[in-house]
Design brief:
- This protein is an alpha/beta fold.
- The chain folds into two domains: 4-130, 3-Layer(aba) Sandwich (Rossmann fold); 133-228, predicted glycosyltransferase like domains (Thrombin, subunit H).
- It has six helices and twelve strands.
- The strands form two sheets. A six-stranded antiparallel barrel has the order 7-8-9-12-11-10. A five-stranded parallel beta sheet has the order 2-1-3-4-5, with helices on both faces.
- Strand 3, helix 3 (61-70) and strand 4 form a beta-alpha-beta unit.
- Helix 1 (12-24) packs across helix 5.
- The longest helix is centred in the middle third of the chain and has 22 residues, at 109-130.
- The termini are close together.
Length: 230
């Protein structure tokens, strides 16, 4: 499994050392010495983890960490701060901003490999959480104060947060639905409340689970783990 890693440092030698090491571990690396370019990457792409130098011209590592935590797609990923300043105040500031780990300079390939191993667990959990896998099943949708509207449709894909469905008439963004559907991993039906969050085209609608039971969450998670894990 390839993890996508962002590396940001204004020292080309540091960028090369981390990039070469990550390449040898099978990661897909996006690297930059330009902090503004890094900010653009964080806004436009999803990453599994990020290395940020704490002192860069323009936006520094603290500011980029805050931007990462505010991102809609990268808010929960591991953030490693690269620093030659191992004082307590710097660490506290970085942790308050949302840093996960520190890598003090100077460092070598062995330290990078060890840190990467520490990151793999959180990165896998985050990837599972965001994964949307193809999944087709019959879905019963009911809505109204006493469930007076009932429509059957089919799913296209599923994630821990929700599903995409073949469009059904008469629903709009914000509408609450009750869903019933079967997962291959369970013998019974999954029943959960959901909210319509996207009606982007005639091809599908997106719904977000709002009240899944613990059993439903576990069944969905097991389905996704089987599709995402190597």
């Amino acid at each position: 499994m390839k993890y996508k890693i962002l590396v940001a440092d204004d020292e080309p030698a540091i960028v090369k050392l981390i990039t070469d090491t990550m390449d040898s571990l099978g990661a897909d690396v996006v690297a930059s010495t330009d902090s503004q370019q890094v900010a653009e990457h964080l806004n436009r792409q999803r990453f599994d983890g990020v290395f940020l130098d704490i002192r860069m011209p323009g936006l520094n590592g603290i500011e980029l960490t805050k931007q990462t935590r505010a991102s809609s797609v990268n808010a929960q990923i591991p953030i490693v701060i690269l620093t030659g300043q191992n004082d307590g105040d710097t660490m506290r500031e970085a942790f308050r901003a949302g840093a996960t780990l520190f890598l003090g300079k100077p460092f070598n390939r062995d330290r990078i490999r060890g840190l990467y191993g520490t990151m793999c667990g959180p990165m896998l959990l985050e990837r599972r959480h965001h994964a949307r896998v193809p999944f087709q099943t019959r879905v019963k949708c009911t809505w109204g104060s006493v469930g007076e509207w009932v429509i059957y449709t089919n799913s296209r894909s599923i994630s821990e947060d929700g599903m995409s469905l073949v469009p059904i008439g008469g629903v709009e963004v914000g509408q609450e639905l009750n869903l019933e559907f079967a997962l291959r991993a369970t013998n019974g039906l999954v029943k959960t409340q959901a909210k319509v969050v996207a009606v982007p085209s005639l091809d599908y609608i997106g719904v977000e689970f709002t009240d899944p039971s613990s059993a439903a969450q576990e069944a969905i998670r097991n389905l996704i783990v089987g599709s995402v894990d190597p």
